[in-house]
Design a protein that fits this description.
Helices cover 56% and strands 5% of the residues. The protein has 6 helices and 2 strands; from the N terminus they run αααββααα. Strands 1-2 form a two-stranded antiparallel ribbon. One of its GO terms (molecular function) is DNA binding.
């Protein structure tokens, strides 16, 4: 089963945007993510609608942050990209009249709802600035160790 990596990818993009001195074009972001610029624009549209990024068309245009990373949580980005399903498992609907299936589905539904509630609460606690700070610490440690690190910007 293919994983939905939109949340991870947009978090990645937002940190790069924060570190980038000028606007980033959809083409630049697409190249960084190994995808198509149309996919980038479609995904970034949700972030723009929520006021986390802004864009400008034309020469010198592109995407830039509209809000400080400390003011954007993982939950904010998750919701802006359309709140994709958090879990690949779930109840069956092959035989809804089956009493066993009903019992199993009830237990799974309840458990998954609780897990999703906990995960969303944790997403709300973590800001993109927290992730960027973790990156900064990792990068500083790598630099001080003398190892070479290629950072795409």
């Amino acid at each position: 089963m293919r994983r939905d990596s939109r949340l991870s990818r947009m978090l990645h993009v937002l940190i790069h945007m924060d570190r980038h001195s000028k606007r980033m074009t959809s083409e630049t972001i697409a190249q960084m993510l190994g995808t198509n610029a149309v996919v980038v624009r479609r995904t970034m549209a949700g972030l723009k609608k929520q006021g986390y990024v802004r864009s400008e068309n034309g020469h010198g245009g592109g995407w830039e942050l509209a809000r400080d990373l400390a003011g954007i949580s993982l939950l904010d980005v998750y919701l802006a990209i359309g709140a994709p399903s958090l879990f690949a498992i779930g109840p069956s609907s092959e035989n809804p009249a089956c009493l066993v299936e009903q019992a199993v589905d009830t237990a799974l539904d309840d458990t998954m709802r609780n897990a999703e509630r906990l995960l969303r609460a944790r997403f709300a606690e973590v800001t993109i600035a927290d992730l960027a700070s973790d990156f900064d610490q990792r990068y500083a440690a790598l630099q001080s160790s003398g190892e070479i690190c290629a950072v795409k910007a």
